[in-house]
User: What shape does this take?
Amino acid sequence: MAKPLVLHLLLLLICGSALLSSGSVIHPISDAHRSAATELFVPAADGSFGSLEETYEALRTFQILGVDRSSAKFEGTCKTVSEKLSSPTTTKDLYHALKITAILGCRTESIEFDGITSRLQTAVKDASSLLELYYSLGGLLTVKEQGKDVILSDADGTFQAIKALSQSDGRWRYDKDSTGSSAFAAGIALEALASVVSLAGSDIDQSKIAVVRKDITKLFDRIKRYDDGTLYFDEKNVDPDQYKGPLATSASITSGVTAFAAVSSEKLNIGGEKILGLAKFFLSIGIPGTAKDFFYQINSLASLENNRISIPLVLSLPATVLSLTAKDQLKVEVTTVFGSHAPSLAVSLLKVLTPDSKEVTSFEKKELEYDPENRIHFLDLSPLKIDVGKYSLIFKVSVNDPEGADLYATGDQIIVTAFLTGFIKVDKAEIAVSDSDAASESVQKLDLSKDSLISLSANHLQKLRLSLQLTTPLGHSFKPHQMVVKLRHESKVEHLFVPETSSRQYKLVLNFLGLVEKFYYLSGRYEIELAVGDAVMENSILRSIGSIELDLPEAPEKAAKPPAQPVDPLSRFGPKEEISHIFRAPEKRPPQELSLGFMGLTILPLLAFLIGLLRIGVNFKGFPTSAVPATFAILFHGGIGAVLLLYVLFWLKLDLFTTLKALGFLGVFLLFVGHRTLSYLASTSAKQKTA
Amino acid sequence: MAKGTNDAQLLIQSLRKAYASTPTSLKIIDLYVVYAVATALIQVAYMAMVGSFPFNSFLSGVLSCVGTAVLAVCLRIQVNKDNKEFKDLPPERAFADFVLCNLVLHLVIMNFLG
Assistant: This one.
């Protein structure tokens, strides 16, 4: 039930809090990224990844990560792309198509580069927006890199055109007419300017480049910062549909700045700290979820890997949980953002801080040793005599070669959170039952390393005492995150208690007299469970230490009932208990013979009636003899008989409505016939009287 | 005591003689009434023995007998020539009423019989 949950929850909480506090865990790009890339960028059957832009992004990501691009699918891509190049398309498509051709190393014999070049040059001249300039200049640069001869006619003018769109705060506008500027546009503009300079060679005036350098400095004034030194760019005051988000903005600026730094003869006035901050930002994303984000991350990191300002070096710990029992070494890796090896470095551990930011005074600055085989810096922890716990480790990385110190950005102080775990000793564990006057105690020693269970018995006038001591491997007293004693009754009602701590000991005293009501007056066998847990405790305890037979007084009338125990939620779907319906007991019927007998008995009076009639001397003299009246008389009697027959049918099977309908017809008939017969009889008797 | 029985016997004898002079038609009606009431009594005796379930059937049976007896008594009153009140009512008319009322009664009885 709660057994594994409690420990897991606690560990999760601790890990979560560790991530939120100083120093998110940063790792350089690794194979995990490569496999994620192959899963994220899935080409269609014809080798494309959607639009031309998406195809370019996918292929560029594969190129940087070193994922295999020689698959047969991409031959089809080459063909579609070369078709695109020969047909009239937008500048953007031309740009992406040319880039794809360069990445895949497609055969260029069939491509008419002259025509493409002239199209691009016209585009540069006629361009009205920043994006047009960017795509056309980028296209021309790609063509030049393919080995063709490309001349930019009016390099100065183009440079000026791009520069004209800049704002005073370092941002750029998209075109002359738009009023809003954005940092994303600034990145694009810088890349376009870099393309102009590469295409023009030495034709560009150096003072102009110097002006752009100042723009870049102004742009970097807008950089945003996290506490751990991560830096990024974000947009303010842009239209919602123009807003691209911090990743896209930072990626655009990174590409632009690194491209411009490559063509600028003088070094840009941006500190290595800013480059490292940007690198940390891109790495802290981990593995992005969308293709676009993945491209932005990898493309930016690629520009940073080999940039001319300074190359960022990243310090990462392959393991942040170190076990004192297993004599783990503290291992540290310093690499470039792509995991390639760094130059010769010295890594030193400056300080070790406890979670409340106090320094561990026993620790002095130590330099880590270097293992050239695995390219890891390591340090043995046992001689340091650091106790178990959660610590913030502060590292400093310095490049050994003094000239190289400028080339690389290592950052000032790097803070990493690490856990030192160890085996916690449990001493002097005792459990005792004593009388309320503390006169006598029956103490039992608990040995928590063995599986033995103790059994005690107590009544409500006695007290239970449980005490133990916890010590760290270095002998200090240990305070775990959690220590709970649970008493569980046979009926599954549970009670939790937290022992109190005093100097070195944990003690729990249960005075049953005061707890009788809390226990709902339930007597019986209570199982005692002890839980001791902490993130740095390798031997957390969660076990039953025994049972106690409690004898509590009877519950009074008004006592609270113990709470209903939770029912297994799945039992709701199981078979339910059988319902025994109570039907109305059928009435007792008399035996059939009796009923039939009485039916016969009912016929008897009828027989008696008929016999009586005969005795009286009934005759049919009054029955009319002549034809017509006789017929009516017969019909009259017949009609009555028919009605009686109808009643019998009504009783047997007809319903009231049919009966009434039939009765209506018969009744009318009977009335008519009866009237005729009876009036005839009346007239004959009247004749007899008068006669 | 002997005198009592003697008196009763004399009474019955005189009643018998008087009764002998009633017209046949009235005797028929009387016999019919006796028949109806006897049937009712048998039904009541049956109910007394086996209980009143189903009660509606019992009621319907008994009431049909009693009802028809009542109607027959009405007929007798109307047909009796010595009855001054119904001098002008032809006996055929009374008989027609008797038949009609019986038919209605028996319709209701059959419905209630269940």
